Amino acid sequence: MEIELVHTTTSDDIVLSGAYFEAKQLVQNPKVDAIIFFHGDGGNFYGNLLLELGELFSSAGVSFLAANRRGHDVIARGAPNGALKGYAFESVSESPIDYEAWLNFVRAKNHRRIILAGHSGGAVRATYAQATVHFPDVVGVVSVSPGEYNHKEVVETHGEQFVMTYREAERAIQRGKPAELFQPRIPWGSMWSAEAFVDCFNPDNRYSVSAHAMNTEVPTLYVFGGNEVEIGGPEELPVCGLAMRTIRSLAYPHVDVRVVSGANHGYVNCGTHLMQQIKDFIDNL
User: Fold this and answer.
1) What mean pLDDT, rounded, does the chain reach?
2) Strands (E), the chain
């Protein structure tokens, strides 16, 4: 496995790290020549899934960047002399800044047909970033196992436990403590600051993946693991199943929804099958 460890700096002075897998073979007139792939919430660029995908795509003739977003790990350093970052303090609204920094990096590598991609929370950010900015040189979006950030639906799914945590986070902000940390373990196991939790699940549904899917303006693929969307199954992740069913029902003409049978949220032992679904999407652009 040949990897170049790389770095970029965002316009607001946050240094992000990544792993660049240069294509191992030359493809004439490629439909896609690079993929920028963000990790999931609390993860980082060197997670097993991203490294596996990097090796698979580079072998298939597509350069691949496994990239940190500012929400890497749970708590991380932000800008010099600035506030802490990491997932606990990250907002989806910041994701276009992170993608822009990495787009500048891959453009410097002479890539001009680029896919924005991500897994889990990174998948939500791939959709949001392209839908709100419409980056040039981006020819597609690949969103792997996003959750649906719809306040009403999350309340209906998780009930009073979610409501109590949300209200507690609101009270912390009102007390002047937006950085107070919470670990409610719903809708998934993670840690949020009060400000980040209220921002993420705000009743205005500002980060609803199904709503932003309408506005990407490029071919967009959503992939889900069969196990994570199985209602009542032992590996079910309800917000992912909600995202899949909602996006399918909306039937946007530029959107494709696929399921990798037998895969859980992390695609353990299913990375090759995930790659094949994405490669088929690319081949049909």
Assistant:
1) 95
2) 4-9, 15-21, 34-38, 63-67, 114-119, 138-144, 181-182, 192-193, 220-225, 255-260
